[in-house]
């Protein structure tokens, strides 16, 4: 692990052209920062790695400002308070924060959220009980609006968003069809109770999907794009809803694919099938739905109807490689980097 | 006009490849049909020509079954009852019907709607008070949901749908920007009270649109596609809504345009701007919104806040050419074919 007397941090060294490589990152050790009044000094336990970070590495306009070259990569973290200059937090408290790819960070106390380690493992605050779980909950229920008996299809179904989407769809009485890459992921989705789990790498994927949705698709939760979307689109029913929160298959694209230009055909499909395609970022729904999510998800987690899986990589220095793998689909479950010891785990 | 002792009708002779031509239609005269019990014999006064008819001429799967080759072209009509075998309708009644491209037709009395010629000109039943007006009303208010002060942009704004969209947007307190082809149409939109009217054929159209939407676009009512859509897309605001009810620019396409393939870029725009793109056909909203539409539209028409314009072509035999022009944008206002005398007009 990292030198505990210094702050090890990973900076964006350059903007990637295509897949991010180790050249796009710099690792360095600097003095541990000092908190000001109202702030806390945090020791990072877990760093969350998420596909949206690829967007922040690019200068292209998006819903959030890019990470500037030469600054610390952004990211959600679970951290321990090791010095507090705010009455609301004590040394030893574990918090959800956004201190990024570094072993220590300073944050305003009002910008972190204290976690209760007795309620759920602290790492779930960046997974099934955090942003990914909430993305699934809000997007599926507010945009997808699955009705009992309808068919919900979700891509990247073994990821933290997709696995929650399928399980919540089933909780709401819909059929859940999960699409993932590789037999291990497919087996896990079946274990979770997905009605059907499909491997998009299979040469028979097109036929498999057709057979899996005899009544068509009412909700397609889209976070991938690419050939999965192309395969799904013809099976969407009239009035189908497509919550769209990610396009991982396209994040590393350096130029548009060759023609023909299918964009007018996509619009024609939306027209003739009365489809709803709705992009969203979970922050849109925080004010209106976060409290309900926390109550529902905590209950489902307790009663076992909502399960999750973590893929924990040890050591901050391994974050760049793990992140590159996330974009290629090599991680399995919620990808976390364990940056420092977890005081809540006795193992 | 047509021989009043026979039923003149226009059949689909063949499916068009690209633009419909006269070869795709056959005109013939057959005996006037005889109504059965519960039916009425109708004399066509006005035939409505609408872009959706291009879709019915093709075999491609859409929201409605295609017109079969060798059968009468479908279409909404305003007609006079000349023989009635149902107690609900009398000879001389004027009705809204769907008897298609022919001078006489038989319909079940329960499938036509009696019109009151004292309330509004009967031709409005297929225009501002009919399907096009309702398409504008339902799509704008239910999907577009413009808020006071927001910017609504509509294409084909001099058509019966677009002109209603812009005027209803203004009634609801939004800014209305209309896009049409040619200076006459632009002048009429300004007369109607659109905040800005733009000519998409102008070489400065891109700059004109940019200048017309300093706060971006919150609602784009889409019924065209093509280069207008390409120009609009970059100006859509986060959370913009795109009700999509037509793609006239693409109806005559015989193959996909050359590359690159911009479909993933379209999806990326939907994602990064949290857009809603929603295809619809007005029939979806009939049960829930038609009564409110009729009340609102009749009131707006009476008080002059909702104006409309008709482009009346005389003679059923001219329907094919008029329809081809509709797809090319040569009509101006609601396109009607006057098939027979209008007994409610004294001129």
Structural overview:
Two copies of one chain form a homodimer. With 347 residues, the first copy, chain A, is of the alpha/beta class. Chain A folds into two domains: 151 residues, Alpha-Beta Complex (Quinone Oxidoreductase, Chain A, domain 1), CATH 3.90.180; 171 residues, Rossmann fold. Helix content of chain A is 27%, strand content 24%. Chain A is globular. The first copy, chain A, starts with 6 loop residues before the first strand and ends in a 9-residue tail after the last strand. At the A-B interface, strand 12, helix 7 and strand 13 of A face strand 12, helix 7 and strand 13 of B. Strand 13 of chain A pairs antiparallel with strand 13 of chain B.
Give the topology, please.
Two copies of one chain form a homodimer.
Chain A: E1 7-12, E2 25-30, E3 39-48, H1 52-57, E4 77-84, E5 94-97, E6 104-108, E7 113-114, H2 131-144, E8 151-154, H3 160-171, E9 175-180, H4 183-192, E10 196-199, H5 205-212, E11 217-221, H6 226-232, E12 236-244, H7 263-272, E13 276-279, H8 286-303, E14 310-314, H9 319-328, E15 334-338
Parallel strand pairs in A: 8-9, 8-11, 9-10, 11-12, 12-13, 14-15
Antiparallel strand pairs in A: 1-2, 3-4, 3-6, 3-15, 4-5, 5-7
Helix pairs in contact in A: 2-3, 2-8
In a few lines, what is going on in this structure?
The structure is a homodimer of 347-residue chains. With 347 residues, the first copy, chain A, is an alpha/beta fold.
| Biggest protein-protein contact in the assembly | A-B, 43 and 44 residues
SSE series of chain A: EEEHEEEEHEHEHEHEHEHEHEHE
From the alpha carbons, calculate the radius of gyration of chain A and give it in angstroms: 21 Å
Q: What's the CATH H-level superfamily name of the largest domain in chain A?
A: NAD(P)-binding Rossmann-like Domain
Q: Report strand % of chain A.
A: 15-25%
CATH top level label of the largest domain in chain A = Alpha Beta
Give me the secondary-structure category of chain A. alpha/beta
Q: Which range best describes the helical content of chain A: under 10%, 10-25%, 25-40%, 40-55%, 55-70% or over 70%? A: 25-40%
Inertia-based shape of chain A: globular
Straight-line distance between termini of chain A: 17 Å
- Number of domains as seen in the coordinates of chain A: 2
The tally of helices of chain A reads 9
CATH topology of the largest domain in chain A: Rossmann fold
CATH architecture of the largest domain in chain A: 3-Layer(aba) Sandwich
Count every beta strand of chain A, where a strand is a DSSP E run of 2 or more residues. Answer: 15
- Extract low-pLDDT stretches of chain A: none
Largest sheet of chain A: 7 strands, mixed
Average residue-wise pLDDT of chain A: 95
